[in-house]
Amino acid sequence: MFEVVKAVGMAQIEAAKHRIEGLSLVAPLVDCNLATPGKTVRLKLENLQPIGSFKIRPIANAVLSRNRADLQAGIYTTSAGNSALGVAWMARRLGIGATAVVPANAPPAKLEKLKRLGARIDTLTNEAWWQAIEQGTLETQSGVYIDAVRDPASLAGDATIGAEILAQWPEVEAILVPFGGGGLACGIACAVRAVKPQVKIIACELSSAHPLKSAFDAGAPTQTAHEPGFVSGIGFGTVLPEMWPLAKSMIDEVVTVSLAQVAEAIKLLAEGNHIVAEGAGAVSAAAALFGHYSETKVCAVISGGNIDSKVLAAILQGRMPDPAPLA
Fold it and tell me: SS3 letters for 61-96?
């Protein structure tokens, strides 16, 4: 269904910026109170978006780029949570139906938010869910499928974050970005390469689940093991083949952090900066706080804040949260 994803240009990014204006927040860029002495780390707070995640940008742009008549049959997506929240939020604004196809280990906090937004929830085993993501469609669903990663409109929505960072902090030297499906990192890179190509794009993954690092090491997407942990939304088995050429050309470096470092970053962000970040949203902060960069002026994208209250409570109490249940 999907072709190899290509970079979007500034015209597409500017169009996305105007299309989603008023729907997404121009997320603030704030100093991290816990940066290493002599270094400046600033946090791009996408966790403050209306749905608690950057996903409002790609989803809103993808939905609003479609023919309105086609949308009347409803919209759906395959998502561990945040993309689905974006679809549900947009559907409610447009007065149409929304369905979230989720994996069996989808975070309860996100499922509750989906229910409050009025979305229908269909659950698949983790394996069947990932197959649905790869296919980009489900015969059992009706309506328009919204892809938050491989749709050029989604990529342009993601790219608005990169454009904002450069406008807010022209002196930035590197941007640390969580890597899940690849849309966020590659989208930000599209804007950065067009305006200030010397800025380094550093993708951040888990040491226990790192498909991008494995692909960089092997020179091609490869299946990787996924050790259970409390972080959801990143660390899938392999890099989507449609995303690999763009990721390979746009991303300068891949770093990994441990689950313990992510938990520590979540705790430090909450206590030191009064910021609530979810696991996937905090891998970039963990990379920043534990020195996985050499530059002096670094931005860490906090991509989301939809963390389960029990997980957050365990982390704040100094305990490692239980792994998410498997299908």
Answer: HHHHCCCHHHHCCCEEEECCCHHHHHHHHHHHHHCC
